[in-house]
């Protein structure tokens, strides 16, 4: 059975190739450590060394938690990636009638991504569509 996000995606938001990166992000969300928020997030970052996955990793000291996008990016950098081509992001448990904002990357992650990803980089957001990084963060801090 398809999730609501998957059904929305099939409505023509993404190409087959993009859908497979989104599927990887959805898989990554299954590894989320989110006992406090119960909100699992998965990210799949396509790079010159391959696809690198991330999930949110929370901590009992809440502020130390790290978002899925940053886990994916930092892992990729640590593994030697130098080119960052596309990022897929999924919050698979988001309710179908939830506001679009509950599926979007947070501002902190956008700033961190802008350190490494060109502003034209496509962000594939599950159940939403494709946005360029610069559409969500037009003026990153430099
Ligand atoms: N979260 C992400 O992983 N990425 C985002 O862009 C927004 C929020 C995580 C952080 C926390 O573990 C949970 O979602 C609820 O905020």
Automatic annotation (TrEMBL):
Pfam families: dCMP_cyt_deam_1 (PF00383). This is Cytidine deaminase. GO terms for cellular component: cytosol. Belongs to the cytidine and deoxycytidylate deaminase family. Keywords: Hydrolase, Metal-binding, Zinc. Residues 16-142 form the CMP/dCMP-type deaminase domain. It comes from Chthonomonas calidirosea (strain DSM 23976 / ICMP 18418 / T49). The keyword Metal-binding applies. It comes from the Bacteria. GO terms for biological process: nucleobase-containing small molecule metabolic process; pyrimidine-containing compound metabolic process.
């Amino acid at each position: 059975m398809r999730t609501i996000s998957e059904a929305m995606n099939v409505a023509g938001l993404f190409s087959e190739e993009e859908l497979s990166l989104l599927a990887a992000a959805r898989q990554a969300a299954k590894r989320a450590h989110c006992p406090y928020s119960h909100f699992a997030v998965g990210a799949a970052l396509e790079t010159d060394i391959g696809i690198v996955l991330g999930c949110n990793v929370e901590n009992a000291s809440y502020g130390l938690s790290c978002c899925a996008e940053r886990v994916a990016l930092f892992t990729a950098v640590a593994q030697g990636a130098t080119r960052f081509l596309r990022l897929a992001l999924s919050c698979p448990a988001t309710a179908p009638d939830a506001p679009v904002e509950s599926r979007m990357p947070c501002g902190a992650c956008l700033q961190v991504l802008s350190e490494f990803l060109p502003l034209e980089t496509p962000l594939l957001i599950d159940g939403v569509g494709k946005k360029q990084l610069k559409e969500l963060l037009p003026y990153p801090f430099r």
